[in-house]
């Protein structure tokens, strides 16, 4: 786990204007920078980046966060990946739990950079070669592709010949070329070692990671040779079970369309982009994996898998279903589109038009229906054996799902089809956190939304975390008496502020709260949309709120003592002490409110 102190130090060194400015065109507007929001379509800029808060906020769609949050949302990186990317740009090394020595870690990073450079140079060579390859150009034009779309995806051509890359790399014998998967070393029986280019006479599709770096290639033959598609082998840069072709190019289109379309091949992705569906991606000659699904769900909550309607397509769809199940929650839509056996997405759009294909996407089969179809299959539900077999087939599928309302709906549907009670299905399948058999739900405690003084204090602390040093236990206790429902929330916030230490700021606190305490999201968004507050004025406002809370507590206790008749010396003494304390607080308030 990355220490919070490192995250704080990183955010203090990174300039969010530079980070966002790599992807969004920003213009100075007062104290902040403005631009068109990359997370929703808009014609006039409502997206602001604050250099003082080190935070971005969109007044249109509400998106907000730190530099780390921006990379996660925009590039689809995981938290650790985003932190590493930012750290690398400012020369910081992310502390890790691995046992690599600093020198070993530096060696790994140097090797990765060397391989990345090799892949970039090869990609430039293949692109240049395409310009002088009339057969390859004719093939692409025959598939309906324009030069513009070919350039967008960086398409190239590996010419005939065994060692064309020798013209690119003076050190053709470098081990990096083998490690990158660009060349093959083979020892002939009893003869010398022979080295030659892996890709020859093929259309080249560069595969990029979420940062846009070329990490592998896919090559398609022009004639009827085999294999039709040849992919890079797995390398330190490339693991095919983790990468998706076209995801880097499709990110903006996915957000605009509201869904991502997963296809089975490179040409599907490029052709669909040409035909008006730039939100398409493809797996890389392998079955869909949970890692693929996780990457897609970082971009959108709606994923549509497109498969051929033949037996091979059904098998691929089943594997995709299994990969989706751990991520099938109530706020996500996962669907399966089965085209007629004679069509792939490219040919379907060309024959029936974009509107017809769009309708096919809308009508795609929901995960719930596909799961039930797979479980029920051809089983005879009129027989005990058939119903038992359907439950047997459904068990591993339902066990793979997280507890959710969707899983409960599937349990009920299966129970109805097989003549079983939902609670019995959950017990028989040993489902985690069963829902159907829980008849009584414990009443939810109503938490009053933060109002009044406690909300005022929380706002001030989020905007100026260093103010937490002004709050002692007496001050917190006074506010807690006034708003007991929110006392724990206030204590949590104060604890987070103080844990950040003397270098605490809004961005560091917001990032920590995003990771651990989502109940503060709305408050963070509210502060993000406001102008920077003055620290001195905020301090006076906080001390005033604390004083007001103490005064209200004192008045309430005095009213209680008076209502009891002030019987006894102890009550009278306490009443007089409270009056003196109350008067002292009033004098302090009068002094602070005097004009300066």
From TrEMBL:
It comes from the Bacteria. InterPro entries: DNA_helicase_N/primase_C, DNA_primase_core_N_sf, DNA_primase_DnaB-bd, DNA_primase_DnaG, DNA_primase_Znf_CHC2, DnaG_bac, DNAG_N, DnaG_primase. Its cofactor is Zn(2+). A zinc finger (CHC2-type) spans 37-61. Keywords: DNA replication, DNA-binding, DNA-directed RNA polymerase, Magnesium, Metal-binding, Nucleotidyltransferase, Primosome, Transcription, Transferase, Zinc, Zinc-finger. The keyword Hydrolase does not apply. Binds 1 zinc ion per monomer. The keyword Transcription applies. Its EC number is 2.7.7.101. GO terms for molecular function: DNA binding; DNA-directed RNA polymerase activity; zinc ion binding. It catalyses: ssDNA + n NTP = ssDNA/pppN(pN)n-1 hybrid + (n-1) diphosphate. Residues 258-340 form the Toprim domain. One of its GO terms (biological process) is DNA replication, synthesis of primer. GO terms for cellular component: cytoplasm; DNA-directed RNA polymerase complex; primosome complex. RNA polymerase that catalyzes the synthesis of short RNA molecules used as primers for DNA polymerase during DNA replication. Belongs to the DnaG primase family. Monomer. Interacts with DnaB. HAMAP family: DNA_primase_DnaG. Contains an N-terminal zinc-binding domain, a central core domain that contains the primase activity, and a C-terminal DnaB-binding domain. This is DNA primase. It comes from Noviherbaspirillum humi.
């Amino acid at each position: 786990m990355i220490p919070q102190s490192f995250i704080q130090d990183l955010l203090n060194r990174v300039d969010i204007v530079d980070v966002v400015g790599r992807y969004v065109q920003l213009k100075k507007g007062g104290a902040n920078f403005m631009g068109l929001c990359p997370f929703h379509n808009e014609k006039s800029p409502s997206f602001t980046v604050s250099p003082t808060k080190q935070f971005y906020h969109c007044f249109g769609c509400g998106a907000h966060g730190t530099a780390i949050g921006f990379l996660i949302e925009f590039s689809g990186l995981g938290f650790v990946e985003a932190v590493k990317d930012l750290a690398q740009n400012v020369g910081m090394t992310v502390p890790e739990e691995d046992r690599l020595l600093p020198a070993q870690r530096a060696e790994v990073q140097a090797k990765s950079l060397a391989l990345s450079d090799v892949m970039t140079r090869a990609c430039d060579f293949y692109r240049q070669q395409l310009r002088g390859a009339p057969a390859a150009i004719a093939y692409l034009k025959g598939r309906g592709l324009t030069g513009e779309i070919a350039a967008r995806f960086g398409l190239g051509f590996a010419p005939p010949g065994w060692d064309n890359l020798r013209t690119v790399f003076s050190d053709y014998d470098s081990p990096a070329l083998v490690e990158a998967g660009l060349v093959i070393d083979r020892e002939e029986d009893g003869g010398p070692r022979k080295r030659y280019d892996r890709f020859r006479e093929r259309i080249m599709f560069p595969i990029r990671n979420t940062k846009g770096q070329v990490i592998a290639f896919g090559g398609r033959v022009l004639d009827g040779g085999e294999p039709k598609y040849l992919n890079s082998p797995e390398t330190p840069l490339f693991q095919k079970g983790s990468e998706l072709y076209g995801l880097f190019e499709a990110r903006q289109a996915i957000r605009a369309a509201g869904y991502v379309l997963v296809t089975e091949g490179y040409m599907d992705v490029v052709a669909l982009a040409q035909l008006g569906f730039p939100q398409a991606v493809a797996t890389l000659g392998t079955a869909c994996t949970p890692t693929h699904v996780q990457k897609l769900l970082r971009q959108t909550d709606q994923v549509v898998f497109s498969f051929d309607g033949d037996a091979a397509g059904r098998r691929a769809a089943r594997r995709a279903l299994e990969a989706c199940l751990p991520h099938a929650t109530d706020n996500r839509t996962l669907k399966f589109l089965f085209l007629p056996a004679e069509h792939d997405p490219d040919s379907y759009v060309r024959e029936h038009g974009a509107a017809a294909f769009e309708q096919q996407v809308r009508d795609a089969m929901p995960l719930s229906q596909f799961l039930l179809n797979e479980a029920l299959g051809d089983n005879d539900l009129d027989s005990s054996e058939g119903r038992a077999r359907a439950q047997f087939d459904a068990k591993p599928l339902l066990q793979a799902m997280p507890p959710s309302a969707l899983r409960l709906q599937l349990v009920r549907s299966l129970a109805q089809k097989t003549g079983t009670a939902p609670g019995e299905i959950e017990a028989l399948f040993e489902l985690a956190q069963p829902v159907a058999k829980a008849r009584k739900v414990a009443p939810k405690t109503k938490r009053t939304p933060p109002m009044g003084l406690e909300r005022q204090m929380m706002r001030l602390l989020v905007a100026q975390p260093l103010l937490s040093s002004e709050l002692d236990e007496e001050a917190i206790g006074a506010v807690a008496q006034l708003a007991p429902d929110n006392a724990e929330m206030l204590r949590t916030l104060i604890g987070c502020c103080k844990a950040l230490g003397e270098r605490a700021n809004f961005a560091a606190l917001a990032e920590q709260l995003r990771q651990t305490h989502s109940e503060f999201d709305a408050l963070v968004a509210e502060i993000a949309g406001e102008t920077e507050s003055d620290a001195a004025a905020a301090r006076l406002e906080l001390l005033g709120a604390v004083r007001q809370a103490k005064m209200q507590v004192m008045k309430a206790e005095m009213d209680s003592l008076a209502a009891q008749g002030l019987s006894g010396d102890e009550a009278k003494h306490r009443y007089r002490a409270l009056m003196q304390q109350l008067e002292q607080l009033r004098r302090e308030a009068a002094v602070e409110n005097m004009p300066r």
